[in-house]
Amino acid sequence: MVGVLIRVYLTRLFTYPGEPIYGLVWAQMVGCFIMGAATRTKGMLVRWSPALNTGVTTGLCGSVTTFSSWQLLVFEQFFNTTRDDHSHFRNFLGGMSVLVSTMACSVGALRLGQMVGDEIRLAYGTYLRHANPELDALSRIDTAQLGMVTADVRRGWLGWNEWRPADMALAALGVVAIIAASVVVGVASSTRSVSIALLFGCVGTLARWRLASLNATPGHEQRGKGLSRLTADLPLGTLIANVAGSAVLAIVYVLQTGAVVRPSAASCYVLKALADGFCGCLTTISTFVVEVTVLRPRKAALYAAISIVATQPFFLFVAGIYFKTAAVDYPTC
């Protein structure tokens, strides 16, 4: 829920007439920066609370960044939905500019976050060694120990009495946030779309977390022949989440134009919330960029290409046909 707020208000803050770059890219960079730091301090986060580690990476970073809105911006440039006086070549350049600049900024922010995370990890390890010389620094926890800690906590989730205090506090905070968002929906009409987006965002984030179980385990090469071998290690769960969320956003985008049914004020709130909340949280760039950077170059390029090529046809056939055939500019939400 915090991720939705950060993304929505950062985008609004950096969206203004004459902006040098589209506002959404700042949210993408912030989310990727936090993700970079979290990947370098995972041992610390897991020892404090495995729920905190999942909440920061899958929850916060995955919700601050969004793959579907990025692809929508690319589509809008390719198809010149604002009907500016551009040639087709200029439209192509606009789409490629959004595509490449977002990817470059996201990777750069991720690397910067990893540098900061390394410094935090080293500083925390130094502090622990001074505080207790017999205690190994958390920065030196090996993979086996880390997996064992995570497995123990997962077994504990079957019983409330085995939850850690930090897990209980985070769960209580989440419940309070959901209740607060529900109250704001009925009270504050000026922020109603954002409040509804917070509720829809929980559903999108949970769905993406469940789909993550389909991702291949990093570092484990899977055998196969031909195309199956080439695609064996691709993060299937993230790919499905990004493509499915983008497909839903394409439908929502057309409905917002009023081309099918003239939207009422209430339906506009819901459609906006679906776009910012559900689609924005179901899809993610932060996880996508991490996966691209850890895969081998050939598979990374294939994964990125499949993700983009599989997404754009939904905007093409759902929204593109409308914008190329509509003779009237319908009011939008």
Strand content: under 5%
Number of strands: 0
Model regions low in confidence, pLDDT < 50 over at least 5 residues:
137-161
Major sheet summary line: none
Structural class: mainly alpha
- The portion of residues assigned to helices is over 70%
Give the rounded overall mean pLDDT. Answer: 78
- Measure the end-to-end span: 23 Å
Order of helices and strands: HHHHHHHHHHHHHH
Domain tally: 1
Radius of gyration: 21 Å
The dominant shape is globular
> Count the helices. How many?
14
Membrane topology: Multi-pass membrane protein
Transmembrane segments: 20-39, 51-72, 92-112, 168-188, 194-211, 232-255, 275-295, 302-323
Function: Fluoride channel required for the rapid expulsion of cytoplasmic fluoride.
Family: Belongs to the fluoride channel Fluc/FEX (TC 1.A.43) family.
Structure description:
By secondary structure, the protein is mainly α. The protein has one domain (2-325). Helices cover 74% and strands 0% of the residues. The chain is built from 14 helices and no strands. Helix 6 (88-131) packs across helix 13 (286-294). The longest helix has 44 residues, at 88-131. The chain is globular and about 70 Å long. The chain starts with a helix and ends in an 8-residue tail after the last helix.
